[in-house]
Automatic annotation (TrEMBL):
Gene that encodes the chain: creB
Species whose genome carries this gene: Pseudomonas bharatica CSV86
Protein name per Swiss-Prot or TrEMBL: Two-component system response regulator CreB
GO biological-process terms attached to the record: positive regulation of DNA-templated transcription
Record's GO cellular component terms: cytosol; protein-DNA complex
Keyword set includes Transcription: yes
MF terms in GO: cis-regulatory region sequence-specific DNA binding; identical protein binding; phosphorelay response regulator activity
UniProt keyword annotations, A-Z: Cytoplasm, DNA-binding, Phosphoprotein, Transcription, Transcription regulation, Two-component regulatory system
Compartment(s): Cytoplasm
Length: 228
C-alpha cells in the first residue's frame, strides 16, 4: 500500500486529501510544517509527498530543496499561486507535479496514481547498447559513462535513460517531460532544457570533448552514439 505524506497547514484541506487518498487505497500521514516533514522523511521514507507551498515555517519550495539533498521521493506541490514562474520554479527544483488551489480531490487522486505508476521500478536491468560508452542499470538507477558512475538526480537519470534506450531518435520536450515523470499537462517543457544543461555538464566532467546529447532546434533532443 503506497504511503503518502501530506504537508499542509490548513486542516480542512488536509482532511479532504486524507479522505480522498485513503478512499483510493493509500495510507496517509499529515504534518503541518515543512521542518516536521523533513524530520519525518529522514526517519521513515514515503512513496509520495503532497507539499503545500505556503507553509508557516519554511516555504514548500525550501522544504523541497532541502528534501532533495537526501531523497528523490516524488513531490506534488499544492499552491494558490498559479503564475507560470511559480510552476516552473517548482518543477525545476525537483517536483513531479503542481496543482493549483482550489482543486478537485478526485483530480489529485488521479495525479497521484499517475505519478506512482510512472515511478514504478523497471522489471529488469536494461543495459544500453554495447557499442556505446554508457552502462545503464535500471534496477539500481545508475548510469556509468566511460566506466565512471554519474551522480544523477532521479529526473536526470530518467531523462538520460530515455535518450539512451532509443539512440538517434529525436524526442520533443513534452515527450521527455513525460519520460522523467513530470505530468505533461503541467506544461513548461522548458524545464527539460535545465535538466539537459545539467546533464551535459556532468558528461563533460567525464569527457570534455564529447557531445552525446544533440540539440535539434525547434524539435527537441537526441542521443548520438557517434559523439559519445
Amino acid at each position: 500500500m503506497p504511503h503518502i505524506l501530506i504537508v499542509e497547514d490548513e486542516a480542512a484541506i488536509a482532511d479532504t486529501l486524507v479522505f480522498a487518498l485513503q478512499g483510493d487505497g493509500h495510507s496517509t500521514e499529515w504534518v503541518s510544517l515543512g521542518q516536521l516533514a523533513l524530520e519525518r522523511l529522514r526517519q521513515q521514507p514515503a512513496d509520495l509527498v503532497i507539499l503545500d507551498i505556503g507553509l508557516p515555517d519554511i516555504s514548500g519550495f525550501e522544504t523541497c530543496r532541502q528534501l532533495r539533498r537526501f531523497s528523490e521521493v516524488p513531490v506534488m506541490f499544492l499552491s494558490a499561486r498559479d503564475s507560470e514562474i511559480d510552476r516552473v520554479v517548482g518543477l525545476e527544483i525537483g517536483a513531479d507535479d503542481y496543482v493549483v488551489k482550489p482543486f478537485s480531490p478526485r483530480e489529485v487522486s488521479a495525479r497521484v496514481r499517475a505519478i506512482l505508476k510512472r515511478m514504478a521500478p523497471a522489471p529488469a536491468v536494461a543495459p544500453a547498447p554495447a557499442s556505446t560508452p554508457f552502462s545503464l542499470d535500471t534496477l539500481r538507477m545508475q548510469i556509468h559513462y566511460r566506466e565512471q558512475l554519474l551522480n544523477l538526480t532521479r529526473h536526470e537519470f530518467r531523462l538520460l535513460q530515455c535518450l539512451l534506450e532509443q539512440p538517434e531518435r529525436v524526442f520533443s520536450r513534452e515527450q521527455l517531460l513525460d519520460a522523467v515523470g513530470v505530468s505533461a499537462d503541467a506544461g513548461y517543457e522548458r524545464t527539460i532544457d535545465s535538466h539537459i544543461k545539467s546533464l551535459r555538464a556532468k558528461l563533460r566532467g567525464v569527457a570534455a570533448d564529447a557531445e552525446p546529447i544533440q540539440t535539434h532546434r525547434g524539435l527537441g533532443y537526441s542521443y548520438n552514439p557517434a559523439h559519445a
